[in-house]
Amino acid sequence: MTRLFTYGSLMLAEVMEIVAGLRFPARRATLAGYRRRGLHGRVYPGLLPAAGESVEGVLWEDLDPPAPARIDRFEGSLYERPELRVTLAGGESCAAFVFLLRPEHHALATDAAWDEAEFRERHLTAYLADCRAFARELEDEPSAP
Q1: pLDDT in tens, 53-84
Q2: Who contacts 126 (Cβ-Cβ below 8 Å, separation ≥6)?
Q3: 2-140: what CATH class?
Q4: How far apart are CA 68 and CA 81, in angstroms?
């Protein structure tokens, strides 16, 4: 079973469904040892290592085989996708893939925490349009023989 922990724009069901191509089951989860920060010139955040801190997010479960490749392509080269342990409500933990800001891109991080409410209010409409354009590009690509 493929699981993905998300902490930024992909926490939003409407974004995840467009990017991944399907709707998947989701639960709240926490990732320890990291902090979420805004990124210079971008409306989405990145995760950086931070001892003693944690990040709340959404754990998407039962991703079908095409979804991780679609999401990797959407996320691009700023991130790497290791598998880490996340904690669910009630204290159980599980392994999940997480998009971490690559070390060579840590300088993009701001000192400010990323604000989901601000993202929803100021950027979500345009962001969803970009997500739909991404999905159309994938649909328009010729299929492999």
Answers
A1: 999 999 999 999 999 999 999 999 999 999 99
A2: none
A3: alpha beta
A4: 10
Number of Cβ within a 10 Å radius of residue 19: 20
State the Cα–Cα distance between residues 16 and 24, nearest whole angstrom: 9
Please report, as a single letter, which amino acid is at residue 118.
E
Structure tokens at 50: 């931070």
Instruction: Kindly give the residue spans of alpha helices, DSSP state H, lying in the chain.
Output: 13-20, 66-75, 116-122, 124-140
Rounded to whole angstroms, how far apart are CA atoms 78 and 71? 13
Q: Distance between CA 110 and CA 119 in Å, rounded?
A: 15
Q: Hey, where are the domains in the chain? A: 2-140
What pLDDT does residue 141 have? 74
- The reported pLDDT for the residue numbered 140 is 84
| Helical segments of 44-115, H only | 66-75
